[in-house]
Write a structure and sequence with these properties.
23% of the residues lie in helices and 26% in strands. With 298 residues, the protein is an alpha/beta fold. The chain has 2 domains: 3-157, 3-Layer(aba) Sandwich (Rossmann fold), CATH 3.40.50; 184-297, Rossmann fold. It has a 7-stranded parallel β-sheet, with helices on both faces. It binds flavin-adenine dinucleotide. Flavin-adenine dinucleotide is lined by residues 123, 189-191, 215-218, 230-235, 247-249, 251, 253-254, 257, 267-270, 273, 286-288.
Amino acid sequence: MNTYVLVADSPAVSELVASAAKLGRPVVAVVVGPESVAKAVAAPGVDKVLWVSEAAGQAAEAFAPAVADLVAADPGVVFAGRKPAERVLLGAVAARLGAPVVAGATAVAAEGGTTVVTHGTYGGIAVATVAYDGPVVLVGDGGGALAGGGTAAIEAVAATPGPISVVSLAPSTVEAVDLAGAARVVSVGRGLKSADDLPLLAGLAKALGAELGCSRPVAESLEWLPKDHYVGISGQHIAPDFYLMVGISGQIQHMGGCRGAKLIVCINTDKDAPVMHQADYVLQGDLYDLVPAITAAV
Ligand SMILES: Cc1cc2nc3c(=O)[nH]c(=O)nc-3n(C[C@H](O)[C@H](O)[C@H](O)COP(=O)(O)OP(=O)(O)OC[C@H]3O[C@@H](n4cnc5c(N)ncnc54)[C@H](O)[C@@H]3O)c2cc1C
């Protein structure tokens, strides 16, 4: 039985490969993307790469049924990242295998033919350990690039794309963000009064060399930042060296996404906000006073 790692156009899958290797079975990376990605993934920790070679220039999603076929030929535990194309691939695989999809696993182990997965539940206030007797699809943070390369065999696989074609490709007007891999993150919450004030936070993030994130309402309901900017159990899981939370109350659903942060500092007017009891350092005060002052000081 193989363990699979699904890779679309980014080879940043070190965390997924490390988790897959823990199961002690052959790790097969199924790559839908350019050959450069297949080569980058053919690294220590991966035993074999199945490279869907026609994928260059095509939407990775068009090969989702083909990827499902490859995995279904010898089903096992499947790992995939959270990027949009990876989600489509894993969805197709889960549907083909009839397998459950589990997000945010914190530990995974093989016990005989059973896969034991630990993950947060009930909004992050509890931890569940669940045994799966059949295949299971695990969604998590990809991590960084794999070290080394050229150690695993690459098998080119011919596959016919589904009826999807790329109509146009243009530079995004939205700045890309890499919260999961960032060493420093500044996030903003509903303490901000207006989207017009976002440059205050962007300026602080820039001064600190940090990525700019937010709480879920800032992205989901206010739509001040793109949805891939929010941190939390249903958003990005981050593990920076330094996390600055500005005008965020620190509800459990947000904190569940930043448990890996080494140092948390918060700015909040309310001494009783939950975040004030969870951060390592607390700045009680108005963000409209503190953010410009800190930016100037930095
Ligand atoms: C199933 C589920 C999943 C969820 N997943 C997520 C998730 O992944 N991520 C997430 O973030 N949320 C998530 N939520 C929502 C979460 O419960 C909270 O509602 C949300 O995190 C609150 O966002 P906030 O802290 O920005 O806003 P608020 O809770 O409104 O907090 C705003 C804070 O700003 C402070 N403040 C106000 N003015 C100022 C000022 N001038 N200066 C400084 N501080 C100020 C206030 O004292 C307050 O503490 C989820 C909820 C559910 C039900």
